């Protein structure tokens, strides 16, 4: 039988429970990535900080996420321990949980992309509105916060929603550090039951349904934003 439901039925709840981990990593990374992306975009307008912001975006967009995750989870704690031993003569063991490492990695990675999305949204803002605000004596800070960002966010919302959907799918690589998300649970079920096809189909359906719900939700929010 191609799909042995009797054998896989009792594993379905265990597989679906991994969805909470997947969504938690994706939504927290999107939230922190959005905040950091806004800061990066603001810093990019200054000469020295702009160079740092460009370097940050260049590094995180130019290296694989799996490499970044490995660095945060495996390398950074080791480097911190070595730093404390060399400079403070103290032997300390730094530990970071798989969930924390995943959120940090995807937040930093997402911030690089979101900052570029915001930049494109900022560039789409009509210069006439900025000039009018400047003529009225509005400060640069309030122009950016109250005029540029709201319009940029509205224009860039579809791209931001796409970034969130991408985070949900790309977060599957957290299975390599043992975090029991959807993909990790599929691997565990496969190793215990030697069923390959059924767990993959179930996990694939869960991902597909989540993405469809998010897509329709994003379209609904986008329509609401355009009517504001």
Walkthrough of the structure:
By secondary structure, the protein is an all-alpha fold. The protein has one domain (12-226): MetI-like (MetI-like fold, Orthogonal Bundle). It has helices spanning 5-8, 12-43, 47-62, 65-88, 98-123, 127-135, 140-170, 182-193, 197-226. The chain starts with a helix and ends with a helix. The mean pLDDT is 86.
Mean pLDDT: 86
- Per DSSP, what share of the residues sits in E-state strands of 2 or more residues? under 5%
CATH homologous group name: MetI-like
Quick one: overall form? flat
Strand segment tally: 0
In the CATH scheme, what's the topology name? MetI-like fold
Radius of gyration in whole Å, from Cα?
Answer: 22 Å
What is the string of helix and strand elements?
Answer: HHHHHHHHH
Q: How much helical structure, as a percent, in the residues?
A: over 70%
CATH architecture: Orthogonal Bundle
Which class best fits the helix and strand makeup?
A: mainly alpha
Main sheet record = none
Low-confidence stretches: none
**Number of structural units classed as domains:** 1
Gap from first CA to last CA: 54 Å
Supply the number of helical segments: 9
CATH class: Mainly Alpha
Brief summary of the model shown:
The protein is built from nine helices and no strands.
Characteristics of this structure?
MetI-like fold, mainly alpha, 228 residues, single chain, 0% strand, 9 helices
């Amino acid at each position: 039988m191609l799909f042995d439901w009797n054998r896989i039925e009792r594993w379905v709840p265990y597989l679906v429970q991994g969805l909470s981990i997947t969504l938690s990593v994706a939504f927290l990374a999107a939230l922190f990535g959005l905040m950091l992306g806004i800061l990066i975009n603001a810093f990019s307008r200054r000469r020295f900080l702009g160079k740092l912001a460009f370097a940050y975006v260049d590094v995180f967009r130019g290296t694989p996420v799996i490499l970044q995750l490995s660095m945060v989870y495996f390398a950074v704690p080791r480097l911190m321990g070595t730093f404390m031993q060399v400079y403070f003569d103290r032997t300390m063991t730094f530990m970071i949980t798989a969930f924390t490492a995943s959120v940090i990695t995807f937040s930093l990675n997402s911030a690089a992309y979101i900052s570029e999305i915001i930049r494109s949204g900022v560039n789409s803002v009509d210069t006439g509105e900025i000039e009018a605000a400047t003529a009225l004596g509005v400060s640069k800070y309030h122009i950016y916060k109250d005029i540029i960002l709201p319009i940029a966010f509205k224009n860039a919302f579809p791209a931001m929603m796409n970034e969130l959907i991408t985070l949900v799918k790309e977060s599957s690589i957290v299975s390599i550090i043992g975090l029991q998300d959807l993909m990790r649970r599929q691997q565990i079920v496969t190793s215990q039951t030697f069923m390959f096809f059924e767990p993959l189909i179930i996990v694939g359906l869960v991902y597909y349904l989540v993405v469809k719900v998010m897509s329709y939700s994003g379209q609904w929010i986008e329509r609401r934003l355009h009517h504001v």
